[in-house]
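Q&A log
Question type: sequence-to-structure
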Amino acid sequence: MRDVGQTLARDFFAATNWSIDNHYAHLTTPSRNLLDFNIPPGLHLALTHRPTREFASSLSLSALVPSTPVTYPPTPAPVLGPPPSPLLAGQLTYVSSSAPLSLTAPKKIREWADPAKFRQVVQGFYVGGLPVKPELREEAQPTWLAGERVDRQDYLMYGKLYAPAPRLDALYIQRFSRTVQGIITLISVPSPISPPPLTWQPNDEIGAAAAATASGAAGRLSELEFKLQQDTGRWSTEYSYAVGDSMWGARGLYNFGKSGSGEVPEDHLQRPGPRERVVDEEEEMSTGLKGRWSAGGEVYFSAQERSAGVSTGLRFSTLPEPAGATAGALPSQPPTVITATLNPIMGQLSTAYCVATSADSALGSRFDFNLFSYEADVTVGGEWFKRRGKGSTSITDSTSPSLKSWDAFGRDSPASGLSETVDLNPRVKPPAEEGDITGVLKARASTNADLALMWEGRLGSFLVSLGVVADLRLASRSGGRMNPIRSVGIGVQYWS
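Response status: OK
Response body:
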């Protein structure tokens, strides 16, 4: 499940009509949500309280956390700050926002029956809505007072304090205008104290030891990064600067097709409703899928490390169903996302294909290949939302009756043609005669012998996550003498 800070930050973007999907950094988010889910390390308990819709606080406790948590895919990037305590560690989080956050406390069980609410706190596959130019919310529109213009800018402040590790994380988001916003992230860890000098140690050795400590990995434990984002609907850009290693970066994403106007929601599962279509020149693939193409890239340079990098990516996403779809007809196509990314300097190529086989299930696969070392990895995974009742669910939009569920072979089913008004964000609704959602089961397997299984669901007023990660190579190489289980985790969240 998502962290409390991640959940509230996404809710802030939705409340301020800012689409995070229309950025290069989130080009592969649908496939990563489906294939790269993380198992909670050890035992984790999070209690969140929201006295108002603009403020929230959370207390998290973790126990039996491994010194090097298992993450997928494995990353060689260093972790800032000291490792977590394996016995007991805690985090205290505060979030304040100028925009009301609409997430509902799970004590209202019927509210969590709606997948649009449940999928806000669990990572799952989705297809973003059509990109349009962002709009300011009504309360943040410029006003005139005594003949002078008054601009109201939305903001979000987030802070997390770790214990017993002396670490502080901070996030600040400022909306400057309709299409521009800034983000400041901070990780602050006190520098380690130099060891006291020995009486017999010469002064030059003392200076050398202090210099080695300051210039090593422990010398740079804090990080400060500035980001400036712009989104016009058709294209988006992001400029960043990291103070720690003096790294400059630039990202861009372009959506093919003609642009239009209209309000944009953050997620297609949150704000349904007809919007003016942005891309009116849909590309049709040989399989009959109709959708839109997006292409982007990034470049970054570190003055301190004297290194640079570049990457590029391509994404195809199917179009949402039209608002005037025929009642009882099968959807014209299943929600599908296809991505491809390339890092020419590192020689890393990655392609992914994800599809929703029904309203409650999705499957995905990814192929990673290195052009220099010829190393390859294939990852497959899926998710299945479980309901208390029987039968399948249906996909509906805000203006049309329920549609029957589809499968991966229902693409050739005819549907009404696309009109000028399209529901950018169709939401998934369970029919009245069917039961509520009780949880989601996720599975992942890869050719590097990694196997993961996780269940997330509701138990009363709590959100529970259970997961296990296994490495079959350990058992095969040791002849069954070693335990293949790498990590087992249990996470519990409570919102009040």
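Response note: Residues 59 and 315 are 38 Å apart (CA to CA).
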